[in-house]
Design brief:
With about 240 residues, this protein is mostly beta strands. Helices cover about 0% and strands about 25% of the residues. The protein contains 1 helix and 12 strands. The longest helix is centred in the N-terminal third of the chain and has 4 residues, at about 40.
Amino acid sequence: MTALAGCVGDEQPGSQRAATTPAAATTTTVPAAATPTDPGRSGSPGTLDDPVTRRVNLAPVDRRGQATTGWTIDGSDDDPSSPIDCGDTSRVSPSPAAVSGDIYYCSPSAAGADACWPTPQAQRMLCLRDPFTTTLDALTAQALVAKVSPPKDPAPLGLLLANGDHCRLRDGGAWSSPEGHPDYVGSYSCGPHGDVWAPQNSSTGGINKTVNRWTVLVGDITGPLTTVPVAEAYYVATAP
C-alpha cells in the first residue's frame, strides 16, 4: 500500500502530545500549546530535579496530515526547486525519533528534516526541525512516499538536561571528536555546556538508559566530559 504525501498513516493512540512508557522512564502529557521551553515546564521546581526521566511524545500533526492545536506552519524556507528527499514509493526511511508510523527521515541533512509528516497536498511535508518550539516547516518533497513503520528503538529528537540545556539529535554534518576521547562521536547538539558524545558504536546515542534517571556525557572538544542527567526526552508521534 502506498501512502502519498496527501495520504497519511493509520491512526495512532494518544492525545496531541501523548506519552508512552519505556523501561527506566516515567510518563507525562504536555498540553497542545505547551513546549519544553515554557517557563512552567523547564524552569519549575521538580522538573529539572525530578528523579526519573520523563519521556514525552510530541504529536504536532494528526493522521489527516493537519497541524494540531497550538502548532503553527511556516513555509518561508520551502524551495520547490530544491525539494527534500523523503524517499519514494519503493524506498523510505522512518524518522529516527518516531514512535508512530508514517513519520519520515528526509535528506539532505542540512535541511534538518528528520521528522516529517505527509499532508493532503501532494509532495508537501510538515517537518519538526526544532522540538523546543511549536513551529512546523512546510517543505516540498521530491516524490510521493510509501508507508513506513517506526524504528524499533527510536532516539529522542530532543533532550532537556538537568543543567537546563536543550539538546537536538544530530542530523549529519562533520563534527570533531573530543580530544580526550578520539573514538567518540557527537550525538546531540546542546547549549553552553557542550554537546552530547558517545562511543561510535553506541546503540542509544550515548544515553544511559539503565537507570531511572537517564544520563549523557556532555562537554566540548577540548575539555573533560561530564555526566549530566536527562530531565525529559522528546519523541515524535501522530495525533488521532
